[in-house]
Structure formats: structure tokens, C-alpha cells
Design a protein that fits this description.
disordered N terminus; elongated; 19 helices; two-stranded antiparallel ribbon; single chain; mainly alpha
């Protein structure tokens, strides 16, 4: 009877540990690391292979589980130390999760391998010690059910291994946002690319470029670009200096109407597109938003009538352009409405009043005070906020 209890207890522990490992590995690979793995495989294979997050998560998880079964077959660790048979599988998972993207878009996997090797050496010592102490354990006298102390001890060990994987894996928010945005854009899901990282203040020039591309494909570039944090300059809206890792740069060039034959400034590129009659409608918002990112209000105001008709009742001027017009008028003429001709028709009177009210509220507090900053936070989704942060 004792032998049967022992086998039953060991089987219960093995099943619980297996379920926990399989669930963690699949969810980790599918939900958290799937996009980064897609980027890494694309980069390391030179674009030859494509990673499917569902198939990849299943296959990798099964391979690592087979590795655990092999380790168990060799070590036969049971009772309180059965979870140690999962260490090599968790180390392999940590290695795959350790994906880093350098400033020049280079991808490296497993750069913390010396740490993983050190842990593997310690694990070998722990396995040897466990095997030596196993004959002296009183495992058959201990409860062996699902909620027994033995099961909880093994689960605690698995929890430590899971935390180790999380600590070693890439948790850089911006890199995850970029990878997810690229995979979303590849499958044509502009809304998902726009949604990722929506509530975060972290960004970089490439993420700004990807968001601008998604917004432009939805016709919302001038309406919502400055609802996101902006990094880089107007030139960084184009993949001229740094292209995406997974999304083909040609997708952006085709969207605009043509690809430059050699590196050039964004202003020259837009001029050449328009001169050769290759510019797609998306170019207008790219030109105007690049000026706004560079805080070139004069250049923006000069170009705005070229791309937007004065009579725009059927197609209202995008909100950020209205905000920029109001800001320009205030800076140039101390808040006194002064637009003439086309610009007067484009100006938004209600928005102008809102800006004047904001200025009156800000004037009640010292320049740069905490009260002023809190007031500006209420306008984080406006061009006014972006311009004030220079």
C-alpha cells in the first residue's frame, strides 16, 4: 500500500507541475514574447522565415516539455525536488526570452547566456545533492494529495523559476510596443497598431513612425498623432535613416507614392514626389505633421492652404491643425484674431476661445509651477501640450 501511495503522490505532483509549466510556457510565449520572437526570427533569418505565434508557442512548449521528461527519466527526482527537473526547460525558455534590440536595429538572443550557464552548474549540484539525500527522506509518511505540503513545495520552486524567466526576459515596454505594432501592421490591423501602448508615456522615433503610418492609413494622422507621446523629428516619420525590423519599409514608401533613390531630407523627398506627380493623398498630412513635430509653425501655416481648401464644411480641418493655427495666431499676435483669407476660413473660433481660457488659467500661477503642469496635463492629447514641452 505504501508503494502505491508513493506512486500516486508522485504522479499527482508530476501532473500539477506539468500543467503549471505547460500553461506558463504557452501563455508567456504567445502573449508576452510572441511579437519579439517574430521580429527576432525575421531579423536572424534575413527575412526568409516567418514566425507564427500560435504554432511557435505550441511547438516550443512541447519541445521544452519533452526536455523535462528526458531530464526526469535520467534523474528520477521525485517528492519535494521533482520541480528541479524543469530547470533546464526554464533556462531554455529564459534564453529564448532574452531578446535585445540594439540602437542600429540589430537583434541578439541570449546575451545573458553566462548567467544561464552558471545557474545550470548550480542546478547540477542541486540534483546531485538531492539524489544523495533522497534515501533518507520520509516521503512515504508525508501527505501526497493535491493540496499537500509536497505539492506546494514543488509549486513554490516553479514560481521561482517563472520569476527568473521574467527577470531575464526582455521587458522593455517600447520594444514590445514596436514589435506588436509591426505585426499588427503586417496583417493590416491599423486599429490594433494604434491601440498598443496607448496609455503609456514611453516611446521612441520608430514607434512614432509606426503609429503615424497606422494613423495615416486610417485617415487620422492630423487628428490623433499628438494624442501619443512623440519622439524624434519630422524626418523620423519616414524610414529614411532607420527602417522597421519586421514591417517592410516599402509599405510606407508605397503608401506615400514612391521610394527615394538615395538618402535625402524629408522636405526634399516630399518635393520630389509632388514634382513628379507621384504623391499620394497621404503626403499632405505627412508634410504638415512633420512641420508640427519640428515646431515649425510658420512653415505649417504657409503650407496649410496648399493642402486644405478654405471651404471645408464637408471635411473639417483635423483637430491638431486647428490647434496649431490657434497657437500660431496667439504667439504671433498676442491672442488677437488676425487670420485673413483662407486661414481665416480654416480657423476654429471655439477652439481659439478654449485656448484663451487655458492661457488665463495658466497665468494665475507662476511659470513652470506644479499647478501649471497639472493644468497642462489635462491637455495632453493636444498639440498645445506637445509644443509647450519643448
Amino acid at each position: 500500500m505504501e508503494g502505491k501511495n508513493h506512486q500516486g503522490g508522485t504522479l499527482t505532483t508530476r501532473i500539477v507541475c506539468a500543467v503549471c509549466f505547460l500553461a506558463f510556457s504557452f501563455l508567456w510565449l504567445y502573449w508576452f514574447q510572441g511579437d519579439l520572437l517574430a521580429v527576432a526570427q525575421h531579423a536572424l533569418s534575413g527575412g526568409v522565415t516567418h514566425y507564427d505565434r500560435t504554432v511557435g508557442a505550441i511547438i516550443i512548449t512541447l519541445v521544452f516539455f519533452l526536455l523535462q521528461l528526458a531530464v526526469y527519466g535520467v534523474t528520477r527526482l521525485s517528492r519535494r525536488t521533482h520541480a528541479l527537473t524543469y530547470v533546464p526547460s526554464f533556462l531554455a525558455l529564459a534564453f529564448l526570452s532574452d531578446i535585445s534590440i540594439s540602437a542600429d536595429n540589430g537583434v541578439e538572443v541570449g546575451h545573458l547566456w553566462p548567467l544561464l550557464v552558471g545557474v545550470l552548474v548550480l542546478w547540477i549540484g542541486a540534483v546531485w545533492l538531492s539524489k544523495q539525500l533522497l534515501p533518507f527522506s520520509d516521503g512515504d509518511k508525508q501527505p501526497t494529495g493535491l493540496f499537500s505540503g509536497r505539492t506546494w513545495i514543488n509549486l513554490a520552486q516553479l514560481a521561482v523559476m517563472m520569476l527568473f524567466v521574467a527577470a531575464v526576459g526582455n521587458t522593455n515596454a517600447v520594444e514590445h510596443f514596436r514589435a506588436h505594432a509591426e505585426t499588427a501592421l503586417l496583417r493590416g490591423d491599423n486599429r490594433e497598431a494604434m491601440r498598443v501602448g496607448w496609455e503609456s508615456y514611453e516611446t521612441d522615433p520608430q514607434l512614432t513612425m509606426l503609429r503615424a503610418f497606422a494613423l495615416s492609413r486610417e485617415g487620422l494622422l492630423g487628428e490623433k498623432l499628438f494624442c501619443y507621446p512623440i519622439a524624434g523629428s519630422g524626418a523620423d516619420l519616414l524610414p529614411m535613416r532607420e527602417a522597421p525590423l519586421l514591417l517592410p519599409a516599402d509599405s510606407i514608401w508605397k503608401h506615400l507614392g514612391g521610394k527615394p533613390g538615395k538618402p535625402m531630407s524629408e522636405k526634399m523627398f516630399y518635393k520630389l514626389l509632388e514634382h513628379d506627380s507621384l504623391a499620394n493623398p497621404a503626403v499632405a498630412d505627412y508634410v504638415l505633421c512633420s512641420r508640427l513635430i519640428d515646431r515649425d509653425l510658420k512653415g505649417f501655416v504657409r503650407l496649410l492652404p496648399k493642402y486644405y481648401e478654405a471651404n471645408h464644411q464637408e471635411a473639417p480641418l483635423p483637430r491638431h491643425y486647428c490647434e496649431a493655427l490657434v497657437l500660431y495666431d496667439h504667439l504671433q499676435h498676442n491672442g488677437v484674431p488676425s487670420f485673413k483669407g483662407d486661414l481665416q476660413s480654416l480657423a476654429d473660433e471655439a477652439l481659439s476661445q478654449e485656448y484663451e481660457q487655458l492661457q488665463e488659467l495658466l497665468a494665475q500661477y507662476p511659470e513652470g509651477s506644479e499647478q501649471q503642469l497639472q493644468l497642462l496635463e489635462n491637455y495632453r492629447n493636444t498639440y498645445w501640450y506637445y509644443y509647450s514641452k519643448k
